[in-house]
Structure formats: C-alpha cells, structure tokens
Write a structure and sequence with these properties.
- The protein is α+β, with helices and mostly antiparallel strands and about 170 residues long.
- The chain has one domain (about 10-170): Alpha-Beta Complex (Peptide Deformylase), CATH 3.90.45.
- The protein contains 3 helices and 7 strands.
- The strands form 2 sheets. The chain has a 5-stranded antiparallel β-sheet with strand order 1-2-3-6-7. Strands 4-5 form a two-stranded antiparallel sheet.
- Strand 6 and strand 7 (about 120-125) form a beta hairpin.
- The radius of gyration is 16 Å and the shape is globular.
- The two termini are about 30 Å apart.
- The protein binds ligand GNR and nickel (II) ion (NI).
- Nickel (II) ion binds near residues 94, 95 and 96.
- Ligand GNR binds near residues 92, 94, 95, 96 and 132.
C-alpha cells in the first residue's frame, strides 16, 4: 500500500466524470488499498479515486471516530436509489479544497446501491454524516465539488486563494 498525492483545486482532472468499473479485480483492490491509506494519512473521512487522479467510480470511506477500531467502507459504481426530500445542513470540507469549509444542504438520508471490496452487490440506507459523505463523494464522480454549491463570489474567492497558494509553491 502507498500514500498517493491528493489533487487540489484548481485542477481539470477533478472536473472529469469518472468511468464505471467493469470488474472488481486485483488492480481495483490495490487502488482501494492505496486510496484508504491516502485517506487515513490526510486525514479525511472519504476519498474518491479521481482525487488521486484515477477516473474510476470508486470511493473509500471511514466515518468512525475511534482510531483503534477502523471501519473502512468501499463503494464501487455507487448509484443513489432514493433521496429524502428533507434536507440537512452540514459543515463540509474537502481534501481537494484544502482548509476551506462551508455549510452545505443535502438530502438528509439516501439509499445507495454499489459493489463492495469483493465485488458483491450491496444496498445501504444512510443518514447523518454517512449520508452527507456518500453524496459528497458521489459528486466527485461527476466532477462536482462542494464549492460549486456556494455563491459565485464565495466560490471564486476560494479558487483565487487556492490558485495563489499553488503559484507560490512553483516559485519557492
Ligand atoms: O474528510 C472529509 N470530511 C468531510 C466532512 C464533511 C463532509 C464531507 C467530508 S469528505 C472529506 C474528504 C473528502 O474530500 N472527500 O472527498
Ligand atoms: Ni471531497
């Protein structure tokens, strides 16, 4: 397993729509292992493959608070089956939008169908942070970031800030 570099905004790859996986084999499992290690290292509670530059519909997640009892989750080709009409607001952050946080409103529960680490079909009913995180990660598969839900002004200020940080990195 190895820790990969996480891409940050602005980066065109993050805007790419990821492709479905046609079989869950060793290559996919190796990718998921690397994604999980990268996510724990960051640290974060979720990671989509495109965040390490791989445009495949694969997500890893661990929302457990206890560092001792890890609860990794793997979602391949996830599809939202049901979204609640009721919305909930959560303070969101993103490893690809470093140090920026904003309250985002999303359906408060959802049902998601996906393949697990072994390629087995699963159906999960999620609420709370899990529902928020699943929707945040599934947005990544469509090339969408949480800042896309903010006003044009707030979004452009964040992108400007991140661009400056990148520009400085190339100088120093
Ligand atoms: O680590 C993360 N925390 C988080 C908090 C609230 C809502 C969503 C997230 S996901 C984020 C990691 C990440 O960027 N995943 O794509
Ligand atoms: Ni994210």
């Amino acid at each position: 397993m190895s820790v990969k570099k996480i891409l940050t905004e602005p980066n065109k790859l993050l805007r790419q729509v990821s492709k479905p996986v046609d079989k869950v084999g060793d290559e996919e499992r190796k990718l998921m292992d690397d994604m999980l290690e990268t996510m724990y290292d960051a640290p974060g509670i979720g990671l989509a493959a495109i965040q390490i530059g791989v445009p495949k519909r694969i997500i890893v997640m661990d929302i457990s608070r206890d560092q001792e009892k890890k609860e990794p989750r793997y979602f391949i080709n996830p599809i939202i089956k049901n979204k609640n009409k009721e919305k909930a607001k959560y303070e969101e952050g993103c490893l690809s939008v470093p140090d920026q946080f904003a309250e985002i409103e999303r359906p408060n529960t959802c049902e998601v169908e996906y393949l697990d680490y072994d390629g087995k079909k699963q159906l999960l009913k999620a609420d709370g942070l899990l529902a928020t995180c699943i929707q945040h990660e599934m947005d990544h598969l469509e090339g969408i970031l949480f800042i896309d839900y903010l006003s044009k002004l707030k979004k452009s200020m964040i992108i400007k800030k991140l661009s400056k940080i990148k520009a400085n990195r190339t100088i120093f």
